[in-house]
Amino acid sequence: MSGFILVSHNLSRAATLSALYESILSRRGGLWISWDGKTQAISSETPHPLHFRHGHKFDTLSFPLSRGEVEQGYHHYVHQGLWPIFHQRPDLARFNQDDLSQYRKLNESYARAIAEYAMPDDVIWVQDYHLIPSVKMLRTAGLTNRIGLFFHQPFPAGVGFSAIPDWSWLAESLLCCDLIGFQTSQDMNNFLLWVESTFRCERLSVTRIRIHGQIISTGVYPVGIDLEDAHCLLASNSCSYMEEQCRATLPENTILSGGHLDDSAGLPYRISAIEVLLRHHPDYTGNMMLLQLASPAAGYTSRTAELSHELENLCGEMNGVQGTLEWCPISYLTKAYSREEQAGIYRASRVALVTPLMAGMSLMAKMYVAVQDPANPGVLILSQFAGAAEHMEGALIVNPYDPDAIADAIHTALRIPLSERQNRHARLMKGIHQQDCHWWATRFVEDLSAPESEDIGLMAGSLMLSSGFNGRVRY
Question: Of these four, 43, 313, 384, 414, which has the most CB atoms within 10 Å of its CB?
Answer without folding.
Answer: 414
